[in-house]
Fold this protein.
Amino acid sequence: MNIIDDRIHNTASAPVSFGTAFTQSPQFDGVFHEGMALVERAASYLDGEGRHEVRQLAQPITTAYATESMRLTTRLLEVASWLLVQRALKNGEISGEEAESRRRKVKLRPSGRPSHINHFDQLPVTLQEMIVESFGISDRILRIDRALQSGGNSMPVVTTNPVGAQLSTLRSAFTVIDGGRS
């Protein structure tokens, strides 16, 4: 085997890191810009137009506004923190170990849904839209983070429905009790 064949052989057998490939991709740049743009829009809204809108709301809705604007801010700070860690890793500003240490401090968690928010439909439309958009970007980043942590392997796929399995067990039990009559 000559030197060129040896390099090709050794390169072909080396695994490609999903994290490295993703953070170097245009897809990461798109997620980064989308997330950071939402952070900027939310900050601008909450500091400007949102302050005026909240003054026009009835009392129980102002409490919902305050609660959801804090939740939105927290969610977006988590998103921004994760994105900035990944960008710093991409740019070689921090090591992989430092990125992992910082990533563990970011508390990514699955987002709720607007239907779980009290008085959601009575909140200002702009706040509603930002909440929904923040759920989407937060959930996407959580899925990306899980993929990065699993080495790029997909999450295990559940091939059976656990509820269906329980129903099948119940049907079998009642078939035995009923003597096979359904």
User: Anything to note?
Assistant: The CA atoms of residues 81 and 105 lie 9 Å apart.
